[in-house]
Amino acid sequence: MSLAAREYLLWDLCSDPVEVQKRLWEIREALEESLKEKRASCFGRALFSKDDIEDEALDVDEVVSITGGKLPVIFLNVTFDKGDVTAQDLAAWEARFALYLFGEGTEESTNACA
What we know:
This protein is an alpha+beta fold and 114 residues long. The chain has helices at 17-34, 50-55, 60-67, 87-96; strands spanning 2-10, 40-47, 73-81, 100-108. Residues 110-114 have low confidence and may be disordered.
């Protein structure tokens, strides 16, 4: 199995924590629905401060530079089996929510049980 991950940011949000959380749930639910038959998982968190950004081990200066200093920011990490999920599978979801691709990577698994 070959794993891949993509990290996204979204920062065009209101400042109401409840509304930001609802938006995060909406984004995650849309991804889960579109990939329901595929091997993928999504972690998401609303980041309301520079401390929150640091808590996710993200580079604060880089996030601030990308977002123009706007907070809150939604951070998403999508991890998936490259043999099961393609970039095209994610493209409509990315476009629908105007997600900024913050980073991506792959890792080959040597674990026969993975």
